[in-house]
Write a structure and sequence with these properties.
The longest helix has 20 residues. Helix 1 runs antiparallel to helix 2. The protein has 107 residues and is α+β, with helices and mostly antiparallel strands. It has two helices and five strands, in the order ββαββαβ. 23% of the residues are buried. It is globular. Helix content is 37%, strand content 33%. Strand 1 and strand 2 form a beta hairpin.
Length: 107
Amino acid sequence: MTSITVYKANDLYIGFKVSGHSGYEESGKDIVCAGISALTINFINSVEEFMDDRFVCSSNEEDGMIEFKFEKEPSKESQVLLDSLVFGLENLAKDYKEFISLEFREV
């Protein structure tokens, strides 16, 4: 199962952590992991390419872990990108609830 934790502070999303492999299918054929990866990597690349917000990001491909946090409150534009990411992850979690755990944590 893939565990996703979305970090919130003052009613704003400020980051997330994704860990584990969904187990939907074998590696290379797992559409659930591919969907999560596409959403999260595109988000990180978009913030890095188009925004000036500073963030920290770490990952471990073997464990299927990626963690991202803004260093301070994100700009409105970055917040829209993060809202969009969370929207996509929520929809995946609804469709594949036995393979994805999604929680929100106040930090």
